Amino acid sequence: MTIVTPESTTVKRPRKPTALFLPELVFFEPNALNYPKGEKIMEWVKANDIPYRMTTSHNRIMNFPGETEVEQYKIAKRTLVVGLRKTLKFDPSKPSADYAIPIATGCMGHCHYCYLQTTLGAKPYIRVYVNTGEIIDAAKKYIEERSPEITTFEAACTSDPVGLEHITGSLAELITFMAKEPLGRLRFVTKYQHVEPLLALEHNGHTRVRFSVNADYVIKNFEPATSRFEERIEAAGKVARAGYPLGFIIAPIIWYDGWQEGYAELLAKLAQTLPPEVGKGLTFEMIQHRFTKTAKTVIEKRYPKSKLEMDMEKRKKKWGRWGQNKYVYPDEQQTALREFITERIFEHFPEAGIDYFT
Ligand code: SF4
């Protein structure tokens, strides 16, 4: 006789899909409401019953509720500020693109290693810009200046714009603009699966959508509040079927006990899950983990239980573009990581291209 225990009858329920981001509080700069995008976001905020306030400038948003700095940080990450992008001078964005195109700053994700922890300092809230018409005009000028060269713009330098697309629609605007620019290209990277609004757009192959992927260990330990690996891969399949050029960024590549198995499994899983037609034209970018002294202090304060290894003694110093030393892996480890992962990429995707390892 078989004895059926309660455990043996337990059915594993499918996990709920990662939800769309819903801020807990929204601030509007008054000028934002003079733009159709600002008005539309206001309608969305009201329809979703989200509390909102007016503010003269995002610089005045302070005193977040919460007893401790960490609590305030968490609340700030769920706060949206709707305003105008004032600087229309674009930053360079090497090695991924020629320029960073600014449509949002800040992100609702909680990746422990994220460089926004330091670049945004005390302003970790999420800002979205309603004057995308002016941003696009500025992009057009950059394209004209560099003609007949192709100019590439990265839309995910200071945010994860896919995670905000249901609120702003800004990526859709950039994609349709770039589709008509013979010398303009757009690219962005995401950890979110919410690509539906982009699938039916006319893109003319001028936008490359990349998904950030990593070994299971890294996603589970260091990437809370982002979409799961399976969701990202499913979205990658949809994007590829919609005809977009597709890419993966493996970042940050982390040296941990078992990294070889972890990264080998990652590439094997990608190959098993993706539709076969994606192999051609697929690109990979590889970025090893790095940190600055300031980042280490901030991360240890915000994620005190994090297992993220940031031992300066074990790293190599590299002079950073922003005037601070960053700590990367010593050459020997870098070579081992680069060679191993490159081999796995070509084993599974012989027709893919590798843009860079940094
Ligand atoms: S999803 Fe990207 S931008 Fe957002 S916290 Fe994570 S690393 Fe930073």
Automatic annotation (TrEMBL):
Protein's recorded name: Spore photoproduct lyase
High-level lineage: Bacteria, Bacillati, Bacillota, Bacilli, Bacillales
Radical SAM core domain sequence ranges: 93-321
A GO term from the CC aspect: endospore-forming forespore
NCBIfam families: photo_TT_lyase
PANTHER family recorded: SPORE PHOTOPRODUCT LYASE (PTHR37822:SF2), SPORE PHOTOPRODUCT LYASE-RELATED (PTHR37822)
Entry keyword Lyase: yes
InterPro entries the UniProt entry points to: rSAM (IPR007197), rSAM_sf (IPR058240), SPL (IPR049539), SPL_Bacilli (IPR034560), SPL_firmicutes (IPR023897)
Origin species: Paenibacillus etheri
Domain of life, per lineage: Bacteria
Matching PROSITE patterns: RADICAL_SAM
Keyword set, alphabetical order: Lyase
GO molecular function, a single term: S-adenosyl-L-methionine binding
